[in-house]
Amino acid sequence: MDIVAYNPGHDGAVAHLRDGHLLSSIEAEKDSNYRYSPLAGSDILDAIARLDRVPDVIAAGGWWPREARPTGLPKHVGYRGLDQSEVIKTRRPFMAAEVGYFSSSHERSHLLSAYGMSPIPQGEPCYALIWEGAIGGFYEIDSDVNIRLLANVMNQPGNRYASIYGLADPTFPKNAPFSRFSDAGKLMALASYSRRTVPTAAEEELMKFLLASVDIRLDLYDKLHSSPYFDVGIEDEEFRNFAGIYSDRIFETFARFAQANLRRGIPLVIAGGCGLNCDWNAKWRDTGLFSEVFVPPVPNDSGSAIGTAIDAQFHFTGNAKLEWDVYSGLPFVMDGNVLDGRYDVLDVSPAEVARMLSSGLILGWVNGRYEIGPRALGNRSILAAPFDDGARVRLNEIKQREQFRPIAPVCLEADAAKWFGLERQSPYMLFTSIATTDALPAVTHVNGSARLQTVNEQSNSALFDLLVEFKARTGFGVLCNTSLNFNGKGFINNLEDLDTYAWESGLDGFVVNGRAFLRRNSMQYIDYRERERR
Q: Sign of torsion, CA 312 316 319 323?
């Protein structure tokens, strides 16, 4: 069965499944569009252009109601809803043919993406956790893939979590109705600076105000003018302490429910934007409650189209599982030319790139199709040597980010235990580990943690070969890895944008599918070239 599904709203995407395999997932923010974008016409055209036949089913993800229909059935299902009887199944015209039409809720899209992409075999019961901007609840998925809500533990956990960053940030307008989407990731970085675990009486009152209401208050900041953290600045030491305490309190609220109400030894799948919080994911694994904890690389809404496609597949075929590859985005577009005279252009081997990186060059790295989800996993990355904290500083300058933001390591899977104490795979950069050496300061956060991606020959052969060569030169199969994107935009996916970015950001160059473009005016590259000539 051929299924095309779309998530029309936040983190919009179009997913294409065929006979239980993910063929592609086209995400609206990618190719240098604004982060968190809804679908645009160009995304629909890209998806249609890749079709080689009329699909059997078009599937629409649920979202907040947009089309007012005084009579008749709605065009798509809403945000919440679990019962299979609530889905829409009908037929409609598409590309001069009649095809099946399916729609199920946004809530089900999260559950089916996490369940369907997990290694848990269909028929084995599991628990699911959705925590995101709106939903915060535990579910049970039985052997027949019936879904039961166990409890809404906390409404809007993601929005509540992000809200304190705006409280402290004097640049955030306090009359804004909603926190910035980017604040949650920044708060995750700040929480690692916390050196205190016991809240003050004032902090207890603040957390009660923020967490006890049924929904997050629309007058949130109006009521907090007297808070000691109102516009105090994100550099404030006590605010950073509170960031860690507040993060722990939200996690502990969910963990207490799990410990009191869930049976031990059953797998857990996690979905929703809070599934990108690597510290929380590691805490779930460390509870020992679950036989396995799985988080897909698309736990946020970028995976909702995939989840709706899996749901449609389940309804039409009975199969709720998916074969997939994280590199299922669009290929890099080489159309266009870089400006003459800007670069030395040459074909390079992994050994030559490893030599450049070990000599201090910072390079964009493009290989194959882009990654699904928001994390750069070695196909749209910026790479650097990890041995000098100056590399972290320079990478954050290149990316125009705050200097408190950490840089993630990518590591040979076989070396993960030695350098990060990790005895298992972590291919999607979704769990934190603790560095076991002080030799990697550029990828070690202030509390010793690292948001690790592991690589083997099967998961990403090009990156694996590069890490092997880098290890041969330095003794460490570890590199700095951060996303290749303009600030506030999704991954770069065409040559003209990459050319512009290299010059505007200060990259020393970039490598696209084995061809290097090295900036002739980069001082680091000039020094490297002179050393190589001696």
A: negative
